[in-house]
Amino acid sequence: MTSHLDITLVGEPGSEAEMEAHMAAGYAEADRLIGIISAWQEGTELYQVNAMAGIAPVAVCDELFYLLKRSLRISALTEGLFDITFASIDKVWFFDRPMVQKPDAAAIAASVRHIDYRYVQLNEQDKTVFITNKGTKIELGAIGKGFIANKMKVLLQNRGLSDGMVNAGGDLTVWGHNEQGKTWRIAIADPERKEKLIAWVPLSEGGIATSGSYERYALIDGEKYAHIIHPKSGMPVKGLQSVTVISPDVELCDAIATSIFLLGKEEGLAFVNRFNDLQCFIVDNDNQFHYSDNLKKVTYAA
């Protein structure tokens, strides 16, 4: 689900063995959760849910049930722009290997027919999940990383660690202070030159995630097609290079960032401005910066 996991711990170091134990516990928690919510790892609960699509409900643990329930709420909030059933499009667009031509319209249309979060039925009493449509598949990448980061954070806090940061595939959550005893400063990378920073955002408690069109894409006849697919059309979206979302809840960040990408600059900013606890920073295709009304403390890099 995520190829990069990183833990930063600050404070009284204790013994080397103690710090190693804290780190190991954090990474073990991530492995445990991936073993539940991964759509691609055979034998996970989510893998079984997908395998039984159109056949029968599957009983799942409280953690997966919670995550699916929250995902469906976000889908309803965004009117289906955030949709965990987008995985059928993976059979049409490929971003991990070369593509020589665009998918034909019929293949795209056939995949899109399977994308609809309303195909997912949750039974609260039995804690079961049933995908009613045979061709539909759930994938939790756009919320699962934040979920894992938050669970790792809670575990580490419960072990007495008052300051730290967890980075789960680019979804970051922080608490307390950094090594200098100050508020964490989170960098926003330049979409065109990833090694260059364009801004810093202060964060003492909460999460931040960036969704970008610049890292994963298909190059076909000299044109880039971003990995962010519109669930209604089945086509990669254009217009924005990156969207960074800040929230007290890291689970929301990537999901909302993806939704803003699909809404576009104007509608995306209007959406975020409806919520006091959401902030966003947008870089459009002209390299212009835009940010939500309540994002005031941005320091632009030189």
From TrEMBL:
Gene3D superfamilies in the record: ApbE-like domains (3.10.520.10)
Name of the protein this chain belongs to: FAD:protein FMN transferase
Needed cofactors: Mg(2+); Mn(2+)
EC category name: transferase
Ligand binding (Mg(2+)): A142, D254, T258
Keyword ATP-binding: no
Catalysed reactions, as listed in the record: L-threonyl-[protein] + FAD = FMN-L-threonyl-[protein] + AMP + H(+)
Alphabetized Pfam families for the sequence: ApbE
GO MF term set: metal ion binding; transferase activity
Origin organism lineage: Bacteria, Pseudomonadati, Bacteroidota, Chitinophagia, Chitinophagales
Enzyme Commission numbers on file: 2.7.1.180
PANTHER family (alphabetical): FAD:PROTEIN FMN TRANSFERASE (PTHR30040:SF2), THIAMINE BIOSYNTHESIS LIPOPROTEIN APBE (PTHR30040)
Record InterPro entries: ApbE, ApbE-like_sf
Similarity comment: Belongs to the ApbE family.
Native organism: Taibaiella chishuiensis
UniProtKB keywords: FAD, Flavoprotein, Lipoprotein, Magnesium, Metal-binding, Transferase
